[in-house]
């Protein structure tokens, strides 16, 4: 196993480093200090050809001026918070409204847009990086000094383990995730409409007109949202279900995961690549880049197109602070926020 550190760029006079993690079985993962971004994941196909399976940029400027969130850690809160405000113990906290009147993915300068401190990890059968960042009290409107840690660990068992921790000195809210954009065809040869996705979920959060949860859920049975036995992503792009149409003909939805089964699988038949996702989180947000073709930037020399990738964001339930029926995202002083997800490449 091997770990290499190299300069990736510079921001406001500070160097930004990239770590390349390699295991003994042909997989390499490149991660950045900026945003804890997963920049590349190189995985062999069924014929042994090694190619990249995530979207990203080859320089820091791309992340600063292109589409945000490629491969980044999202925080303090993943997803949208209605009205860019919430209440704790009778006090209202006003957050930055960076998507119309709502708060999205941590605000204007969320965890995706800061330089994290880094420490390389070398263990028997694994290499990785531990990232740390202190988000000060009041940043983007959130209460409390939040001490956050993100760890990536690549193993010889073909796993990339993602671990999140956080502590606060004041009651606050936390819900972190990684926003990797997967395309298992390798080097973006095809879009992901032909990818087969399997999710053990029978209920999905209903979305309203601002792509915010309404507080209701719907049964997936008989719809293009039923991935329990596996189905192609394309099914949602041609579906006339109002929820598919609402988000631009595809998916941008939180699938609730049962306590007894939280394993998600994504497969590209042509390349033979399979991604298995295991998590301890209550839901996965599936986003299929439904309107990416409208964007003007380039991704590693290619103009983006609709359905170029799929995001599988394992996390707490979106906007849970406004829906007490869902698992709490409140963190108290003296408590530890913990979340774990594992990606297995096959």
Automatic annotation (TrEMBL):
Enzyme nomenclature, EC number: 5.1.3.3
Pfam families cross-referenced by the UniProt entry: Aldose_epim
Regions crossing the membrane: none
Pathway named in the protein's UniProt entry: Carbohydrate metabolism; hexose metabolism
Record keywords: Carbohydrate metabolism, Isomerase
NCBIfam families: PRK11055.1
Protein name: Aldose 1-epimerase
The species this protein was found in: Heyndrickxia coagulans (Weizmannia coagulans)
Organism phylogeny: Bacteria, Bacillati, Bacillota, Bacilli, Bacillales
């Amino acid at each position: 196993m091997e770990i290499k550190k190299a300069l990736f760029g510079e921001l406001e006079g500070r160097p930004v480093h990239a770590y390349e993690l390699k295991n003994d079985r042909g997989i390499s993962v490149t991660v950045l200090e900026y945003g804890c971004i997963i920049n590349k994941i190189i995985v062999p196909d069924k014929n042994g050809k090694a190619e990249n399976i995530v979207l990203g940029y080859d320089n820091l400027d791309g992340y600063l001026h292109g589409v945000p969130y490629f491969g980044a850690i999202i925080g303090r809160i993943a997803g949208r918070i209605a009205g860019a405000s919430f209440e704790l113990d009778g006090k209202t906290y006003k957050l930055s409204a960076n998507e119309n009147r709502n708060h999205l993915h941590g605000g204007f300068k969320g965890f995706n847009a800061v330089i994290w401190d880094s420490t390389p990890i070398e263990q028997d059968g694994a290499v990785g990086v531990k990232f740390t960042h202190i988000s000060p009290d009041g940043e983007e409107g959130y209460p409390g000094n939040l001490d956050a840690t993100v760890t990536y660990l690549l193993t010889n068992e073909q796993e990339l383990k993602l671990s999140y921790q956080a502590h606060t000195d004041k009651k606050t809210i936390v819900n972190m995730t990684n926003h990797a954009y997967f395309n298992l065809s390798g080097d973006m040869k095809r879009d992901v409409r032909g990818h087969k996705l399997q999710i053990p979920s029978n209920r999905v959060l209903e979305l309203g007109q601002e792509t915010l949860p309404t507080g209701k859920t719907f049964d997936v049975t008989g719809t293009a949202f039923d991935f329990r036995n596996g189905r192609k992503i394309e099914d949602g792009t041609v579906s006339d279900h109002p929820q598919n149409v609402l988000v631009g003909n595809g998916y941008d939805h939180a699938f609730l995961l049962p306590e007894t089964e939280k394993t998600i699988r994504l497969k590209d038949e042509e390349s033979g690549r399979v991604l298995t996702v295991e998590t301890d989180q209550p839901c996965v947000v599936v986003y299929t880049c439904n309107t990416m073709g409208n964007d003007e930037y380039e991704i590693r020399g290619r103009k983006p197109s609709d359905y170029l990738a799929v995001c599988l964001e394992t996390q707490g339930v979106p906007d849970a602070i406004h829906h007490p029926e869902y698992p709490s995202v409140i963190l108290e002083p003296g408590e530890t926020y913990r979340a774990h997800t594992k990606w297995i490449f096959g």
